[in-house]
Design a protein that fits this description.
Blueprint: H1 3-33, H2 46-73, E1 90-95, E2 100-105, E3 113-116, E4 119-124, H3 129-134, E5 142-147, E6 150-159
Parallel strand pairs: 2-4
Antiparallel strand pairs: 1-2, 1-6, 3-4, 5-6
Organism: Pseudomonas cavernicola
InterPro entries: GreA/GreB_C_sf
Protein name: Transcription elongation factor GreAB
Length: 160
């Protein structure tokens, strides 16, 4: 588990997502401002709908830019067992079923998934139920969370 490589892969994914979102924003903006989309009557809402889409895309671009800034400024910390799991921890969990998950506790971009050496790594934040449950825990700890009214138990196998 190489935390520095995971960190760089997260930044790379955010950069790629930002480029896609900026392209979608440009397309939506052009549709919203195109002369053919000017309303001819009160029932002609194509231009208005394109404007809403452009606004949503602009918000998405801003969110990705914010996450990218947070990750570029992020200082990776080595795991300290006396403090337990904290921001920037790379955590391997084992579910009751025996399946394993790899999580990176980051400042933003919750739900972002990357693949490193064939293994999926999901970004979570301290604000998520899983992130809150993991804070302060160490290797060997059991973590219980409720997801959709179902209790799930995980064991912390490894922390970097």
């Amino acid at each position: 588990m190489n935390k520095q490589r995971i960190h760089q892969l997260i930044i790379d994914k955010l950069v790629a997502d930002l480029q896609i979102a900026q392209g979608a924003l440009q397309t939506a903006y052009e549709a919203a401002t195109h002369e053919e989309n000017i309303a001819e009557n009160k029932y002609d809402t194509l231009g208005l709908e394109a404007g809403y889409l452009a606004h949503g895309q602009a918000k998405r671009v801003a969110e990705i830019e914010q996450a990218l800034t947070a990750y570029r400024q992020l200082l990776l910390r080595a795991f300290d067992p006396s403090n337990g799991i904290q921001l920037t921890a790379l955590v391997r969990l084992e579910l009751e079923s025996g399946a394993q998950r790899l999580l990176f506790l980051g400042p933003d971009a919750a739900g972002l998934k990357i693949v490193d050496a064939g293994q999926e790594v999901m970004v979570i934040t301290p604000r998520s139920p899983m992130g809150q449950s993991l804070l302060g825990k160490a290797r060997g700890a059991l973590v219980d969370i409720s997801v959709a009214n179902q209790r799930q138990e995980f064991e912390v196998l490894e922390v970097v």
